[in-house]
Amino acid sequence: MKFLHSYDLASDQWINTSKSHFFTVDASPIFLSKIKNVLGCNRGNIPFNDLGVPIFVGFSKARFLQPLVDKVIYKLVSWKGKSLSMMERIELVNSMIYSSLSYNFQVYRRPSTLLKLIEK
To answer: What is the model's pTM?
Structure first.
């Protein structure tokens, strides 16, 4: 906490403990309680999203990336009812969907099952 307080003073960036979380893997309840008391924030759960990118432990699996697929499907469904030309549809796919997916895929390897699902 002394280090974090020093960071607060030096950077003028204050840590909001009500919005902050700590993450551990396989920690005992006693250890978790000690960390919570020292840091003053709650334990977070994995997987979670940070800046729109899913954060998880291990290899990327389709179930972790399902929200990306749902987002693509939602956009396609919302465009379906609009009277758009084929060129307008292609432009929407290129600008909105591919940019969103490429942003996320820069962070982790994408499972082939996910790519096949998106292609459908």
So the answer is: 0.48
